């Protein structure tokens, strides 16, 4: 009877996928840690020594870890961008690094659209007002005048970023009867057919009733929306960010909100997290906020488990995994 290769999982992982992997590997489950420390410091040296495949999410696979992995043949990072893995060090050892792209795209699109609805309908403000005991028989129609909102049907949504999350938001927006224009410098104008049109950033900002950000955070996108760009947005339009805070210049946004240059702002991300309760944006009644919960769903675990297991299956069968981060090791 052949000996199965050893696979070490330190990420939260779907049980069904674990059982599938047991058909081809001797699987070792390690309790997940949120510390983000090197696997070399987790007290699992015996497992590292025999591991041929490691699946991790927050634990780091660095030089110190690799020095303890004499038999390692593949690493899977349960993230779209494997920031917890020293990809260069793995590449120098001809170790393929697999990722789980778009693992949270659907739940993030859900939250972004939820935040959009909450912002344009002032639902958080209305709930706080209600819980504070402000609704009285003296003016039963007070909330009707205080919390006016807009309908989505017939309005234009501007999506910044046409990747997996942006496409998910597009699908939801079309279901609400919205017209959609997308800013994505890497896509042709007809990338979405009749569903949406790709347009320059300034046009999207100036033409949209609601703008939502879904571009990746890179050097080129830090401060994508500064004072100039924010000034292009109409004062009756709304801005939603469930992507990365640094995409918007913080000082410029605070100024725009303070001066009521926007109808409303919805944020799930902040420039420093946890954000301070005395942040100036929290003093504004046009800001709706959630504490970076876009990816907070067990469905993300199920999805990254599925993508990881499929990638490992491709690798095990000698096929180049679609999620391979360092393709140079495959041709080496």
From TrEMBL:
What sequence ranges are listed for the domain D-isomer specific 2-hydroxyacid dehydrogenase catalytic?
Answer: 18-323
Q: Which Pfam families match?
A: 2-Hacid_dh, 2-Hacid_dh_C
Domain D-isomer specific 2-hydroxyacid dehydrogenase NAD-binding residues, every copy: 114-294
**Which UniProt key words apply to this protein?**
NAD, Oxidoreductase
| A single GO molecular function term of this UniProt record | NAD binding
Q: Which domain of life is it from?
A: Bacteria
Q: Which PANTHER family match?
A: D-ISOMER SPECIFIC 2-HYDROXYACID DEHYDROGENASE CATALYTIC DOMAIN-CONTAINING PROTEIN-RELATED (PTHR43761:SF1), D-ISOMER SPECIFIC 2-HYDROXYACID DEHYDROGENASE FAMILY PROTEIN (AFU_ORTHOLOGUE AFUA_1G13630) (PTHR43761)
Would you identify the family this protein belongs to, as annotated? Answer: Belongs to the D-isomer specific 2-hydroxyacid dehydrogenase family.
Name-wise, this protein is Phosphoglycerate dehydrogenase-like enzyme
